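Quick log. Single chain, no ligands specified.
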Amino acid sequence: MAVTGPYDHKVKYTGLSTDTKPTVGILPGTEFFETDTGKTFIYSSIYSVPTGTELLTWVAATWDEDGVTWTFAGGTLTHITGNTTPVNATLTDATVVGTTYKVVITGTGGGDTATYTLGGVAGTTIAASGAISITDYIKATLASVSLVITPANTCTAALTLVSVKTLTEWTQE
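-> predicted structure:
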């Protein structure tokens, strides 16, 4: 199950790493982007969370697609209807039990759904039709080096990005 709740609120601040980050009246899920470092901080009521290292490289070699059940071409991972064969992405590092990961999935759906798991936890269902825009915060329950997407038989999802980043606690001032 994906972690939702305080991270659903979308307020964003931009500034330099030397700027004092707001701490009064800040709602959980508020983002602060440092333009000079490229780091994003996500505030909770207890601590802020800097977005960490990307664990999934968006290239064909990352995925175990076979060209028959899934294809990766032109930067798009597409499920071919008529099968429920999962596709696995190899992460650059294994998930760590108890660590939270930010998962972003974008693309389009044309029919039926797919699900994904990371670190033993199922994320948000990938849409049956229309735009796909998922941001989940997954707390791993097991160590794994894969993100797995499992389609329904008639799923026609075309994914344009899957991103997995480690989140690290950072004490709020």
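The first strand starts at residue 12 and ends at 15.
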